[in-house]
Amino acid sequence: MSDSTRAQRIHELDVTVWVGKNGLDPVEDELNDQLAEREFVKAKFHRSARGGTTTEELADDLAERVNAEVVRTRGHTAVFER
Q1: Could you point out which of 1, 41, 48, 82 has its C-alpha 20 to 30 Å from the C-alpha of 9?
Q2: How many distinct structural domains can be found in the chain?
Q3: Tens digit of pLDDT for each residue in 25-35?
C-alpha cells in the first residue's frame, strides 16, 4: 500500500473507541478485539480521560497495553495499528 493510500485510509477512519472518565482500563479489551479484526483503529480521548496528561501520553500507554503502535495523534484522537 502506498503511503498516500495508507494516509487516506487513516484519515477516513471513524472513531470506534472512546476513552472517557473511567480511563484506559475499560477500553483495553475493546481496542484489543478491534485490532484483531482490522488494520487500524481510531480512538478519541475525552477531556475527562485526559486529566493532567496529554492525548499522546494516553495513546502511548494504551498502545503498550495492547501490544500495538500509535500511527498518528491529532487533536484528541489517536490511530493504532498492530
Answers
A1: 48
A2: 1
A3: 999 999 999 99
